Amino acid sequence: MLKLSPAERSELRSEAHALNPVVMIGEAGLTPSVLKEIDASLNAHGLIKVRVFGDDRDARIEMYEAICEKLGAAPVQHIGKLLVMYRPKKEEVKERNEKRGKGLREVTIVKPSPSGTKKPTVTKVILKGNERVTAGGNIKRAKPRQTSIKKSSLGRSR
Fold this sequence. Notes:
- There is one protein chain.
- The protein is built from 5 helices and 8 strands, in the order H-E-H-E-H-E-E-H-E-E-E-E-H.
- The protein has helices at about 5-15, 30-45, 55-70, 90-100, 150-155, and strands at about 25, 45-50, 75-80, 80-85, 105-110, 120-125, 130-135, 140.
- The longest helix is centred in the middle third of the chain and has 15 residues, at about 55-70.
- Strand 1, helix 2 (about 30-45) and strand 2 form a beta-alpha-beta unit.
- The chain is elongated and about 75 Å long.
- By secondary structure, it is of the alpha+beta class.
- The protein starts with 5 loop residues before the first helix and ends with a helix.
């Protein structure tokens, strides 16, 4: 089981406040399929809430401890029927998300023929991070947002 300092636990509690439960534990209790789902959710999110539908408080506490022990997660908070737990995300998931960024990407543009009787023209184009393809198949560069002169001068005077 993962151990957290009181400051870390407090910070995680505040982050978890806005979360919705991602896994619900029903009448059947803590089955292997429920554990697998909790494990997948921890891998994807890191910090999750689990709702337990049961009135027995001792059974909920036992489930909470069993989940944290089996999955290597840290117990963050137990309020009523909600269990909050944390496990750092695995490196593999982070690497996959880091690859999505502003860089070169290849896009296929398909334009229909002007007469409509011939085959459409297919071209492969490499776009930079600030470019996009319009609905008509043209490439446009993103322009920086215009800022109001009034708003910028008001912000400086304060």
